[in-house]
Amino acid sequence: MIENHGELPGWKVVPAMGDRVWKPGAPVFGWQERKPMTPAQVEDCQGGKLFTAEWAEKPFRGYSVVPDEDRRKAAKFTSEEFTKNIAKEIKTG
Fold first, then answer.
1. Contact 39/22 with Cβ under 8 angstroms?
2. For 47-82, how does the pLDDT look when each residue is reduced to its tens digit (9 = 90+)?
């Protein structure tokens, strides 16, 4: 099984997907409904792609176990990293 450093046929461990957030200190590009625009909203504006490339980031959100068909590349771990990061997540859900 995965939690014993083995393989689980048909499945792989990948970095979890998450939304982009603004980096600390990022200037406000625009407002929508009294809130700063999200990176996705800014990207649709003129010059937004360049702005988000510099000021937005995708923080680490953990790992997910997904089918082999998933387009993301499998994460690679040392035995120690696996025990510390993956097995704990699988047990806690």
1. yes
2. 999 999 999 999 988 888 899 999 999 888 766 766
Task: Judge contact between 25 and 48, C-beta under 8 A.
Answer: no
Question: Which DSSP category does 84 fall into?
Answer: I
CA proximity to 52, closest of 12, 81, 17, 19: 19
For the four alpha carbons of 33, 26, 40 and 16, in that order, the dihedral sign comes to: negative
d(CA 40, CA 54): 13
Which amino acid would we find at residue 9?
P
- The torsion of the CA quartet 62, 1, 11, 73, rounded to 10 degrees, works out to 50
Residues 6 or more apart whose CB falls under 8 angstroms from that of 45 comprise 29, 30, 37
CA gyration radius for the chain? 18
pTM: 0.57
Tokens of 45: 């504006």
